[in-house]
Amino acid sequence: LSQNGYDFTASGSTMKFDGYLKVYGEYESGKDVVLPSFEEQEQIAAKELKANQHFTEPPARYTEAKLIKALEEDGIGRPSTYAMIIDTIQARGYVTLEKTSEGSRTKVFKPTEQGILTTEKLDEFFKDIINVRYTAKMESTLDEIADGTAEEVATLKDFYNRFQPLLEHAYENMEKKELEKVGEVCPDCGGELVYRTGRFGKFISCSNFPKCRYTRQIDKPEKEKPEPTGKMCPDCGSELLKRKSRYGTYFLGCSNFPKCHYMENLEGERIVSKKDKAKAEKETKTTKKTSAKKTTKKTTTKKTTTKKTTKKSTTKKTTTKRTKKNEE
């Protein structure tokens, strides 16, 4: 319908043949709207106007299975490469696999900040190459190369003739993000430390990269270096070093670790680790079991000897009685 320059549309259905409804009976659906009969160019009068607000919903996020199905439908990848594709987008930090809700078993892919930024830049500067149709066509061409119906050199030449100008344009025009400063000095070269983003998220790096390759994680502070004490290990004679445990306490440990496990506290008292303590207890139990086996074996031997002696004595007595009887 047209009115004052605006077009109005309506959708619905009109039953022309009841078909299976003859068996199942009348079918009602809240979604189906039966429209009255209209003639073309017919003039109608508006009785009532209703304005309903409606928000369009975004497509549902991909699960692993749905993503593989979408790749298959678009002709991207092969059954042997689907697992690698899914692993790669996660390893590079483009997406994370998260549950849809607490207690749910279903996991969906959610784009990360790095993934969104990468997609935006690729779409802006490499739109002709980074798209579904081009990728599917390239997959098909690679199959033809494997079958011998297409030339490898010609395919590569065609790709680089298109890719090289796009790469140069992106290098010249893509804005470079200013690196956020940490406010610390690099311990290796004295340069300024900055935040960078890698495949595993943010990390701290030297601003003089690649000349200086100092890096460290943000949440984990640097470990304190062991301090020499001049004191010797009573077990192996190596020097004891002052170390910091993961709980923040200090202790003296042998510099010959892991060959020597000697430790002591700052007061000079020996520290026995749980591992060494368990090992010592196991050795003690094994020694006790071995001793018990030897004792049992000796006792059995004695019993056997006694039995044999008794048997011999009985035989001897019987023989004596028989001899006396014969003499009589």
The protein's oligomeric status is single chain
Distance N to C terminus: 148 Å
CA radius of gyration is: 43 Å
Number of helices: 7
Percent strand: 15-25%
Series of H and E elements: EEHHHEEHHHEEEEEEEEEH
CATH superfamily of the domain at 64-173: Topoisomerase I, domain 2
Can you tell me the overall shape?
A: elongated
Architecture of the domain at 64-173, according to CATH?
Orthogonal Bundle
Read across the widest sheet, the strand sequence of neighbours is: 9-10-11-12-13
CATH topology of the domain at 64-173: Topoisomerase I, domain 2
Low-confidence region ranges: 299-328
The chain-level mean pLDDT equals 80
Biggest sheet details: 5 strands, antiparallel
Which structural category fits the helices and strands? alpha+beta
Q: Any idea of the CATH class of the domain at 64-173?
A: Mainly Alpha
Please provide the count of β strands.
13
Layout of secondary structure:
Blueprint: E1 2-3, E2 6-7, H1 21-24, H2 64-74, H3 82-91, E3 95-99, E4 107-111, H4 113-125, H5 132-147, H6 152-173, E5 181-185, E6 192-198, E7 201-206, E8 215-216, E9 227-232, E10 239-244, E11 250-254, E12 263-264, E13 270-271, H7 274-327
Antiparallel strand pairs: 1-2, 3-4, 5-6, 6-7, 7-8, 9-10, 10-11, 11-12, 12-13
